[in-house]
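Run log, item B.
One chain of 163 residues. Sequence copied directly from the ordering sheet:
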Amino acid sequence: MGSGPVVRPARRDDVMAICHFGEEHVRAHYAPLIGEEAAARQVRMWWHETNIAGAVARGSVVVADDGGNLAGVGQRGLDGDDHVIYKLYVHPSHRGGGLGVRLLDVLIGQLPSDAERLYIEHFVANERAGAFYEREGFTVDGIEPSSTGDPGLGVVWRVRSLR
């Protein structure tokens, strides 16, 4: 077949694999950008079983399933009334092949039909993510400086109109 990974809603039995994906790939991705300590903190805060299991139970996580191995993870949620993508990660060996766009499209397809905007956030230091979101029609809405004073740890908020 060779059609590549299947993007589908995450199931309860994916939770530990998603946690491991975060530990292995998210930490490695962020360490050179924001430092080992901050990268480890991101994984501890957002990629633990309680957080992931809750998001999976709410139906807000999608995975790219490559024959039983995770090739990518996406997670959406709400910040007040705003729809936000909180996670969108592709395994390094699958980058550049359109999988990020597929994950994004499935997440957008799950939004209510009356959703007018979609927000994403990423670290200032994560320029690769910034370029990806720019290509996908997200424009900078604002930058939250980091409480640490490290400019790379600032959070870029981007928005895309869905209308």
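Observations after the first pass:
- The chain is about 35% helix and 30% strand.
- The first helix runs from residue 15 to 34.
Flagged for discussion on Thursday.
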